[in-house]
Design goal:
Number of domains: 2
Strand order of the largest sheet: 1-2-3-5-4
Shape: globular
Largest sheet: 5 strands, mixed
Order of helices and strands: HHHHHEHEEEEHEEH
Number of helices: 8
Distance between the termini: 28 Å
Helix content: 40-55%
Radius of gyration: 19 Å
Number of strands: 7
């Protein structure tokens, strides 16, 4: 049920307006200290607390919790207040937009493997597991990757330092530009668009968000079910 609720939340996001507002603002592009990064709060709000806040409400909470640390960093970076906070808002939006679709994938995984089987956190993310599944005594460490061509690859070593046990699984997926312009000048569908339509692991929401379907997790579940018999 959470995956359905979260999908409705995603579909209500006005991506077009956000993109027009933030796409050209790239003032705060330097590395941010860990204490003012938004990723930990994003997992806390949307996964742990299951509060599906709009970006404006999330950003307001972020500013409230990080006010002191943000001011210290701004002064160290010698940026004017207006420039810094305009750039920061756009920077946090891009992080927000990228991570909420990944968190949606966690809810989809939970709908496949069962409640309590999925873990997501900033700590797991830093160890190479965007979505960690524990099912029938097995651990699956999923890492979500946008790519120019879709596919799933298993069995790679974890790319980051950590002590996570289990199988590492890459979920590679494609978000073709052709979603908004699927036909060529000759009226034919573009190859990238046709590839996207054939990939049953993903789908496009009306506003342009590309999200995962249960299909991306179901094959692994069937394999583990067979192993456990």
């Amino acid at each position: 049920m959470s995956s359905e609720k979260f999908e409705k939340f995603l579909e209500a996001v006005n991506l077009k307006d956000y993109r027009q507002k933030y796409s050209r603002i790239k003032i705060v592009e330097m590395d941010l200290p860990k204490d003012i990064q938004a990723i930990m709060l994003l997992y806390k709000v949307y996964w742990d607390e299951k509060k599906f806040l709009s970006f404006e409400d999330f950003y307001k909470r972020y500013l409230g919790e990080k006010a002191e640390q943000l001011e210290k960093f701004r002064k160290r970076s010698t940026m004017c207040e207006d420039c810094f906070y305009r750039g920061l808002e756009a920077r946090i939006y891009r992080t927000w937009a990228g991570l909420i679709t990944q968190i949606h994938a966690g809810y989809v995984a939970e709908s496949v493997f069962g409640k309590g089987a999925v873990s997501m956190s900033a700590g797991l993310d830093s160890q190479g597991a965007d979505i960690r599944v524990e099912y029938r005594g097995y651990f699956l460490n999923y890492q979500v990757k946008k790519t120019s061509y879709s596919g799933v690859k298993s069995g790679r070593p974890l790319p980051r330092k950590g002590k996570l046990n289990g199988e590492a699984v890459d979920i590679k997926y494609e978000v073709p530009i052709s979603l908004s312009d699927p036909r060529t000048q000759k009226g034919e569908f573009r190859k990238s668009y046709l590839r996207f339509l054939k990939d049953e692991r993903t789908k496009s929401l009306k506003n342009g968000f590309v999200v995962f379907t249960p299909r991306v997790f179901e094959e692994k579940k069937r394999l583990l079910d067979r192993k456990s018999k």
